[in-house]
Amino acid sequence: MDKKGILDIIQRNSKNHAGIIAILEEIQEECSYLPEEALRLVARETGRPLADIYGVATFYKAFSLKPKGRHCISACLGTACHVRGAQKIVEEFSQELGIKPGETTPDNEITFETVNCLGACALGPIVVSDGHYFANVTARKVGEILRDTREGTFGSDKAEEAHPFLIEVSCPRCGKSLMDSETSVHGHPSILITASMNGKTGWARIPSLYGHFSRTHEHDFPADAIVQLSCPHCASSFQDGSRCVECGAPLATMRLADGSGVFRICTRTGCEGHLLDIGRAEL
Amino acid sequence: MINLTINGLAVSVEDGSTILEAARFLGFPIPTLCHHEGLSPYGACRLCVVEIGEGPGARLVSSCTYPVEEGLKVRTASERVVRARRMIIELLLASCPQSKVIQDLASAHGVRTQRFRQEYDDCILCGLCVRMCSEQMMAGAIGFRGRGEERSIGTPFDVQSDVCRFCGGCMYVCPACQLRCTYNQPEKAVCNACANLAPPCIQKEKYGDMMCYMNPCVACEIK
Ligand code: SF4
Ligand code: SF4
Ligand code: SF4
Ligand code: FES
Ligand code: FES
C-alpha cells in the first residue's frame, strides 16, 4: 500500500474523531503489518509524538511491526492450554522452525505466534494453522502440522474452515450412530435424526462440521417454534432439560460417538444455539 | 478548601491537591521515587503509599496520585504503611540494586536485605524520563514501548530520534542510572564505565552492549 492510501486512512479516521488504535488497525488490515513509514506518517498527520504512536503499536499484540509470513501458526498459551502442556508444544515449534514465538522464518514462509486462549479450552492444547484448528495437540504432532502447513494444505484463506471440528454423534439412549454417510453436507457425512411437531414427523439433518449450524427438516416447520428431536432408532427424545443460552428453549442432547462428551443443539427452529461439552459424557 | 486529618492532625488544603502535597505541607515525610515537582503524577513506584479510612475499610493508596477528600483520615506511617513501603523498597532492590537513589532509600528505611531473585535492570519503568521529555522539554522523543516483561523505555524503532534536543533531561531525572554522562568529555564522565569498554561504547555500531539505560543512548549522540 502506498503513502496516499495510508494518508487516506488517517484522514478518514480523524474526520470521525477516531483514535490512534482505529487508524493503526486499518493500516494493519491493509498492509498486514505496520510499516515504519506508516507510523511516521500517522505521527505527523495526527500531531502526536512518534514515541506515543510507537508505544501504542508495540503495546498491543494485535499489531505487528514486522511483515508476516505466508502461513501463520498460532499456539495457544492460555491458562487451560498451558496446564495441558502447551509450553512444550511452543518449544517444539520454536525448535523445529528455528525461530522464537512472534518471529517469521527467514524464508518468509511461516510466522509463529502464541496467543492467549482461543475459546476452545476443553479441546486444548490448541494450535491454529492458517485458520485450521488442531485440538489436543501433542509435541509429536508438531512435525506433521508443520509439514502440512508448508504444503499449503490449509490454504491461507482464514475465513474458510474457521470451525473445522468434525463431530460424530450417537443416541445417548440406545447408543446407535446418528451419522448418515450417504448424504453429506459441506462434504462431510451429516447427522440424521427425527423431528416432530404438531403431529408431523419427519427427518432433520445437521452438518457434522461443528460451528456450521443449519438444520434442515423434511417438513416445513414454522419459524421460531419448538421441535421435538428424537432418535430415529429407538425414538427416545433428546430433550434432557438443559436450556439454550441464546433463546432459553430446550436443548436436544446427543452423545459424541467416542464418549468424550456431548453435543447439544437448540430445538427452536431458526435458533443457532449449539454447543459441544467435552468431558461430560454422563447424561 | 478541603478539610482532612493526617496522622490525627486537622488540616485544610486547596481542592485538587494530592495527599502527598497536603502531608508535605504539614511536614510529614513521605518517600517518593516516581514523583517529581513540575511533572505530572504517575503513580508507578507506589513508594508513597499511605493508609486512608478506618477499621476494616482502611486501604493503601499512592498519595502522589490521590486527591484530597473532605473528612479523609490519612495515616502516613502506620504499621501497615511501613510494612508495604519496606516491601516496595525490597522489590526495587531486587530489580535495580546499583541505583544510588534506591540504595539511599533502603538505608533510610532500614532495609538491609532483599528476599527475591536478584536482577540488575537498567530501568525501573518509573516514567520520569518520559514525562521530563514531553512535559518539560516538549520533545516527546522517548516513550514506553511494549508491555509486560518486554516493556522498555527508548526512542521509536531504536534509532536516533529526530526530535530529541540532546538536553540530557531524561538522564538527569533518572533514579536508576543517575549517569548524567558526558562521555563526549571523558574527564566529566560520571561512571566512566563505557570509556573502559573496548571499544568504547561511543564507537559501537550496535547499542546493545552499552552501559547506559537508554537504548540508544542520547548522551552518546551529542556529537
Ligand atoms: S535528551 Fe532528548 S530524550 Fe532526553 S529529555 Fe532531552 S529531548 Fe528528551
Ligand atoms: S529510564 Fe530511568 S527515569 Fe526513565 S523510566 Fe527508567 S528508571 Fe525511570
Ligand atoms: S552509553 Fe552513553 S550515556 Fe551511557 S555510559 Fe556510555 S557514553 Fe555514557
Ligand atoms: S486456553 Fe487455549 S483455547 Fe482457551
Ligand atoms: S511517588 Fe507516588 S507512586 Fe511513585
TrEMBL record, chain A:
InterPro entries: Methionyl/Leucyl_tRNA_Synth, NADP_DH_HndA-like, NuoE_dom, NuoE_N, Thioredoxin-like_sf. Keywords: Aminoacyl-tRNA synthetase, ATP-binding, Iron, Iron-sulfur, Ligase, Metal-binding, Nucleotide-binding, Oxidoreductase, Protein biosynthesis, Ubiquinone. GO terms for molecular function: aminoacyl-tRNA ligase activity; ATP binding; iron-sulfur cluster binding; metal ion binding; oxidoreductase activity. It is an enzyme of class 1 (oxidoreductase). Pfam families: 2Fe-2S_thioredx (PF01257), tRNA-synt_1g (PF09334). Its EC number is 1.6.5.11. One of its GO terms (biological process) is tRNA aminoacylation for protein translation. Residues 216-260 form the Methionyl/Leucyl tRNA synthetase domain. This is NADP-reducing hydrogenase subunit HndA (Putative NADH dehydrogenase (Ubiquinone) 24 kDa subunit). The gene is hndA.
Automatic annotation (TrEMBL), chain B:
Keywords: Oxidoreductase. One of its GO terms (molecular function) is hydrogen dehydrogenase (NADP+) activity. This is NADH-quinone oxidoreductase, subunit G (Hydrogen dehydrogenase (NADP+), delta subunit (Hydrogenase active site)). Transmembrane segments: none annotated. Its EC number is 1.12.1.3. The gene is hndD. Residues 114-143, 155-184 form the 4Fe-4S ferredoxin-type domain. Residues 1-80 form the 2Fe-2S ferredoxin-type domain. CDD domains: fer2. It comes from anaerobic digester metagenome. InterPro entries: 2Fe-2S_ferredoxin-like_sf, 2Fe-2S_ferredoxin-type, 4Fe4S_Fe-S-bd, 4Fe4S_Fe_S_CS.
